[in-house]
Amino acid sequence: MNRSDDLFTTDFRAEPYWWNEFRPAPLQGSDPGRSHDVAVVGGGYAGLAVALEVARHGLSVVVLEAGLFGDGASTRSGGALSAGLSIGKSLTGKALDYPPEVVDMVVGWARDSFAHLERFIEREHIDCHFERRGRFLGACAPHHYQWLQARFDKLQRSGAKDCWLIGREQQREEIGSDYYHGGLVFNAAAKLHPALLYQGYLRACQRHPAITLVDQSRVQRLARDGSGWALDTGRGRFSARQVAVCTNGYTDNLVPRLHHRLVPVASHIIVTDEIPPALARRISPNGRTFSETRRIMHYFRLTPDGRRVLFGGRSRFTTTPFELNARLLHAGLVRRFPELAEVRVARAWQGNVAFSGDALPHAGEFDGVHYVAACCGGGITVMPYLGTQVGLKIAGAIKGPTDFDRVTLPRIPFYRGKPWFLPMVGTAFRLADYVDENLR
Ligand SMILES: Cc1cc2nc3c(=O)[nH]c(=O)nc-3n(C[C@H](O)[C@H](O)[C@H](O)COP(=O)(O)OP(=O)(O)OC[C@H]3O[C@@H](n4cnc5c(N)ncnc54)[C@H](O)[C@@H]3O)c2cc1C
Predict the structure, then answer these.
(1) Which of 84, 109, 171, 112 is nearest to 136 (CA)?
(2) Is residue 407 part of a domain?
(3) Do the domain assignments include residue 322?
(4) Closest residue (by CA) to atom 4 of ligand 1?
(5) Per-residue confidence at 388, pLDDT binned at 50, 70, 90?
(6) Best CA proximity match to 378, nearest among 185, 283, 248
(7) Residue 202: which CATH number?
(8) Burial class (CB in 10 A: 0-12, 13-18, 19+), 176
(9) CA of 306: how far to CAs of 289, 295, 310, 374, in Å?
(10) pLDDT tens-digit profile of 17-36?
């Protein structure tokens, strides 16, 4: 398929596939009160989780969202989650070394946040197609399979029992592709419909009398006001005793210390037209989610009805026209599944994630402002979990410094919030991936 008009279905839309079931829309509401115990900036999973937790502890809270509720990354993701976290790789590809207690702590957050989300979905009866189907991590070169073997051995030594290696010869039991050189299966992984999950968070907030939601109200200025805070928005001034900023990949200069420590990175997704059921079963015989060992990696899965392929990746690290992303992603899809060469693209979209200098998610406090930030690519489980922890801290249910306060969001040398280096990082990664996969 070469021409642009051949690539897209006749009903193509440049918006998340997930918005078929939940589309961000303006909230109807009366004039919100101006003074609250807590103000939350940003209405994604993290911000709503903070609000739910502080409200549960009897505090009044306003959530101020720049756009519509659900405009951010939380309704735009691939919907893949796992109870593990791959740590140690920075955005620049530099291998990072953490003290063992930090590794244990972060691995613990990943495990706890997965369980926390499962409980929330159950408690709130959220029908978001949550399915524990496991994840296949494909090796993109023969020596990547050796890395996976080493990782598997380490996991075994630490007592992990729910993962196993798959050699190239059995790979078709897991995936309808010969692209990979074997892989590693993680059983403790799941998939869901991210926008229906978001709708569940939003409805839980809307049901709570102590929570006020205000959309189309970008916080332009945040300043100390006596013992509390004043927040200026296009809809006037709000005040609160405590503030949490949960803006992740959309962080602006509202809190410069946060802005200068987060690198926003665009991530892109396409969803194909419907494919025959037998082909879908061949592509994903066990209904798993898929990711891979490349630096510029792709992730994919079937949609909840099992009839389309969702294929994503950081085809470019920056916001780029959807036609270009769709073409690049479609080419990547066909390299893995040549049978899909003639299948068209029904949806294409993008959204922002945020990376920290140490490639870890963070929650903490800068000059009295609480924050949750740096999902580092995967935040469906960890961002609401950290939001809940920050909520507990604000409500006084956790006293003193938390585990999260022990790992400070680091400064990034020579960086002031404008990621000028991303195109260069992207080119270097593409080159390194090419060498790895073709010349070694
Ligand atoms: C394409 C894509 C694919 C992804 N795939 C996966 C996946 O498969 N698995 C996974 O675990 N994670 C995935 N993620 C990451 C996941 O979606 C995010 O980690 C998570 O949604 C972050 O939630 P959040 O609440 O921190 O931020 P967001 O949902 O981005 O919310 C932040 C909000 O802050 C608002 N805001 C910003 N500045 C201001 C201001 N000054 N005033 C008021 N409001 C403001 C923004 O408008 C935005 O709505 C993906 C992300 C993208 C973009």
Answers:
(1) 171
(2) yes
(3) no
(4) 77
(5) very high
(6) 248
(7) 3.50.50.60
(8) middle
(9) 12, 28, 10, 31
(10) 999 999 999 998 777 888 99
Tally of CA atoms within 13 A in the half-sphere of 114 that contains its CB: 21
Is residue 256 classed as helix, strand or coil in its secondary structure?
A: helix
- Specify the number of domains making up the chain: 1
> What is the whole-number distance in angstroms between the Cα of residue 392 and the centre of ligand 1?
21
Domain that holds residue 50: 17-132+191-265+351-439
Looking at the CA of residue 373, tell me the nearest atom of ligand 1: 26
31: in domain: yes
How many Å apart are CA 412 and CA 377, to the nearest integer?
Answer: 18
For the segment 305-318, the average pLDDT, to the nearest whole number, is 86
Q: Would the pLDDT of 221 be above 90? A: yes
User: Ligand 1: which of 40, 75, 77 to mutate, judged by most atoms within 8 Å of the beta carbon?
Assistant: 77
Token pair of 133 as six digits: 């189907």
Of the pLDDT bands very low, low, confident and very high (cuts 50, 70, 90), residue 55 is very high
Contact 432, 93 (CB under 8 A): yes
In degrees rounded to 5, what are phi and psi of residue 82?
-145, 155
Specify the amino acid at residue 427: T
What is the residue with the minimal CA distance to atom 13 of ligand 1? 378
Structure tokens at 201: 């968070």
| pLDDT, average across residues 107-130 | 94
Query: Residue 132 in contact with residue 169, Cβ under 8 Å?
Result: no
pLDDT greater than 80 at residue 91: no
**pLDDT confidence of 439, banded at 50, 70, 90?**
confident
4 vs 181: which has the higher pLDDT = 181
Which atom from ligand 1 is nearest to the alpha carbon of 289?
8
Q: Which of 110, 246, 102, 281 is nearest to 190 (CA)?
A: 110
The Å distance, Cα 374 to ligand 1 centre, comes to: 10
Please, what is the average pLDDT of the chain?
92
Q: Whole-prediction pTM value?
A: 0.95
* Per-position b or e across 64-87, b if 16+ CB within 10 A of its CB: bbbebbbbbbbbbbbbbbbbbbeb
What does the pLDDT read at residue 90? 58
Q: Which residues line ligand 1 (CB under 6 A)?
A: 41-47, 64-67, 71-74, 76-81, 218-219, 246-250, 252, 254, 267, 269, 299, 312, 351-353, 375, 378-380, 383
**Residue 26 is which amino acid?**
P
In a domain, 62, yes or no: yes
- Ligand 1 nearest atom to the CA of residue 350, by list position: 1
Residues present in the chain in total: 440
Query: Around Cβ 434, how many Cβ atoms within 10 Å?
Result: 11
